Backbone:
């Protein structure tokens, strides 16, 4: 009687070898697709949001976030409405610069890029205005 070997068993994944049984999400409390709870949960999963909430400025960030949402829902000017919340968040982030440094540096680079772009635009407008003045002066001297 020949014994056939069944298919060899795969060796277990070393990553999951010591892991407990993965938890299965409960379907009872799971929000249905398209619900407000599901949208809020997705927003909370945002890496930036998780990072901002992970530091000492969680409260300021949540206040700022709520202000932005409120302004958007009411079609209000976000900059005007949320100026105080934005200022409070920035002050808090600077006070906790050890944690928020990557964001503060990125913001500084963005501000520098905008300032450079504005300066280049001013230079271009100035050159165009000088060119127009030169053309006008040429027309006057010819006529």
Residues:
């Amino acid at each position: 009687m020949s014994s056939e070997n069944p298919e060899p068993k795969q060796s277990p994944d070393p990553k999951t070898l010591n892991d407990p049984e993965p938890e299965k999400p409960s379907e009872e409390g799971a929000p249905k697709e398209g619900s407000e709870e599901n949208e809020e949960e997705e927003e909370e999963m945002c890496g930036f949001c998780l990072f901002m909430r992970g530091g000492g400025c969680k409260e300021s960030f949540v206040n700022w976030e709520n202000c932005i949402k409120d302004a958007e829902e009411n079609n209000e000017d976000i900059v005007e409405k949320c100026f105080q919340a934005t200022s409070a968040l920035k002050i808090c982030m600077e006070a906790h610069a050890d944690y928020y440094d990557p964001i503060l540096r990125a913001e500084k680079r963005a501000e520098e890029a905008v300032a450079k772009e504005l300066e280049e635009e001013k230079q271009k407008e100035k050159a165009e205005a000088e060119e127009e003045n030169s053309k006008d002066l040429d027309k006057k001297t010819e006529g």
Remarks:
- DSSP finds six helices and no strands in the chain.
- The two ends are 117 Å apart (CA to CA).
